[in-house]
Design brief:
Blueprint: H1 8-12, H2 43-51, H3 65-77
């Protein structure tokens, strides 16, 4: 499977992504875009937002060593 496929992350890390949803894809667009120059979401921006720690606990941040491996894989993908 291509690592840029939207379902790659949930298939590779099923314990981190319990709710099956597609991740980043090349066709992902910004919602409520005020800046008309940029309409697509880059991979760096998407994963930075995904890994950003918020006040809510997520399975991603509770993954421990698996979360660290995910960060390494995402960094290599970018």
């Amino acid at each position: 499977m291509n690592e840029l496929a939207p379902s790659y992350d949930p298939l590779q890390y099923p314990l981190l992504f319990l709710a099956w949803e597609d991740m980043w894809s090349e066709n992902l667009r910004l919602q409520n875009n005020q800046d008309k120059a940029r309409t697509r979401v880059s991979m760096v921006v998407y994963y930075a937002q995904t890994m950003h720690f918020s006040s809510e606990l997520s399975t991603l941040h509770l993954g421990g060593c698996l979360f660290q491996q995910y960060i390494v894989d995402v960094t290599a993908k970018i």
